[in-house]
Design goal:
Blueprint (H helix, E strand, L loop, with lengths): L2 H16 L17 E3 L5 E5 L14 H12 L1 H4 L8 H5 L9 E4 L5 E4 L6 H15 L4 H12 L14
Antiparallel strand pairs: 1-2, 2-4, 3-4
């Protein structure tokens, strides 16, 4: 392992260890907001006006989870090229790691957030590691190869994410 990877990988792994693996525990939107709905797979989805407004389903959760949602939102183009290896492709119809946090970015700028990432350590770890590698100057292709190599064994079938071109 090279020194750059060694510098951030322990922090990412610690973050993932502190957070659980994917689970199906339901969370309440808490505020009765009509913009919160349940997806067919049970995930909560909430619409906010923009990517700058985090969903209310993060309220009361570990602040580190909200931080990962902020990171995922800032890196949504990158995460659209990175697969998730938690099984959400088959279970929730996700196409890439970004879908674990954001279901849809609408033409008007509003965001449909997904709470899947709030209870999945694999999703959180992939988003953090990928974003960190981007800040280190790695290309999307390098990041994708690293994620695929790291998660190819011992994890679920990846999302059907096309290779970046």
């Amino acid at each position: 392992m090279n020194r750059n990877r060694a510098s951030w990988l322990p922090a990412a792994l610690l973050t993932a260890a502190l957070l659980s693996g994917c689970g199906s525990a339901e969370q309440s939107g808490g505020n009765g907001d009509a913009h919160i709905q349940h997806a067919a797979n049970g995930d909560l989805q909430e619409v906010t006006a923009s990517v700058d407004q985090l969903p209310s389903f993060l309220d009361g959760l570990d602040p580190m989870i909200a931080q990962v949602y902020t990171i995922a939102a800032a890196n949504r183009d990158l995460l659209a090229s990175i697969p998730c290896y938690c099984g959400c492709g088959e279970e929730a119809g996700h196409q890439h790691n970004g879908n674990c946090f954001i279901k849809e970015e609408r033409a008007d700028g509003s965001i449909v957030w997904d709470d899947h990432g709030t209870r999945c350590g694999v999703c959180l770890e992939i988003a953090v590691v990928s974003s960190k590698m981007k800040t280190e100057g790695k290309s999307v292709e390098e990041i994708r190869r690293f994620i695929d190599d790291t998660y190819k064994e011992g994890y679920a079938i990846p999302t059907p994410t096309p290779m970046p071109s």
